[in-house]
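[Backbone geometry]
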Amino acid sequence: MFVDRVQIEVKAGAGGAGVASFLRQKGRPRGKPTGGSGGRGGDVVVVADPDVASLLSYARHPHWSADPGTHGEGDLRHGRRGVDLELPVPLGTVVRDEDGTVLADLVDPGQRVTVARGGRGGKGNAAFVGRTRRAPSYSEQGEYGETASITLELLLVADAALIGFPNAGKSTLISRLSAAKPKIADYPFTTLEPNLGVVEIDDRQYVLADIPGLIEGAAEGKGLGHEFLRHTERARVLVVLLDPTPIQPDGIDTQLAVLRNELRLHSPDLADRPQILVVTKADLAHADPSAAGDVDAVHHVSAVTGAGLVELSHAIADAVAAAVRTAPDREGFVLHRPLPPSFTIRRGADGWLVEGRSAARAVGLADLTVPEAADLAAHRLRRLGVDDALAAAGAQPGDDVRIGDLVFTYDPELADGEAQA
């Protein structure tokens, strides 16, 4: 089964929690802070792997999670970092976010993009020791890992693509030119999925793709070909197969016009792609000498008898080589997204909602009933600019402010203590 587009849900690992711990010593009732920090959660990373052929495993298993970080312990033992989850995909895979934005175009082995980042580990109380804090009794919680819904779309990377109407002979031709073993039958839409074959001619090689049959209206969603038109985008050369036999209702001149129009409607760039015109089934075409119409076809071939196949294979190899010289391989890319705002504020039904990783991090302490921890959280929010932003948005003293699962009372007159971030 060939799967070329899947949507998956990914979840990065949560960070481990820090711990508040003390080394008890004689004469020092509270002892020395020795709480370790939690480990960072693992990231989710999509990696281009030449040994992966399809996206089938992701269609079967659409949910993936990275390892969480472990919690800190006493005696300054820090938590272990969560192992990153690497998701191998075929070369030529495009990664999109939930909004359809292309995050990466992975065409080279080892290219990677991080699609969900692990949560930061919480600090243990030993990490809070400072000039004004000799024995802090609080620690931080670990952050949640990011979650994301992403789409993986495989665009086949081929040197040349066979296109034509259903039953034009594409599958038979690729089976004769290469070692590919496509399904072949005498009914429409035999090819339900793209086939790839490696063709060797003398000392040259090229990758040939058999694209499912196109019909008029394919670019608008008709037939089966519309799902695979995009696979032609990666082909350097288009081999257009024209069927002169009565099985096709239209002559080859009409076939060519329809095919070129569908390519143009799908992507204007495809109309300018190098094309080799081939009239197939030469062993049968003699029954109707006028079938070739006015089309100046470059090659007349028969995949059954082998007539013209060597010449055609050389022509494709020459066209591919010329395309390589004039248009180097398209490089993959990874989109470097700007950092999101540190927080946002909006009015909710029950008060003000402050959202964003920085705001959640500011109040992510293990026990806010400890006065020192509450002071530190208030100081962090003020330094982050949350207080000023609430005032600018119209918050009034006594309004409820929610950050995650925590609800605070807005009080702009609250003194800022001596807590430090």
About this structure: Residues 182-192, 217-225, 287-295, 415-421 have pLDDT under 50 and may be disordered. The chain has three domains: 5-154, 160-326, 344-409. Residues 344-409 form a domain with the GMP Synthetase; Chain A, domain 3 fold (CATH 3.30.300). The CA atoms of residues 11 and 147 lie 4 Å apart.
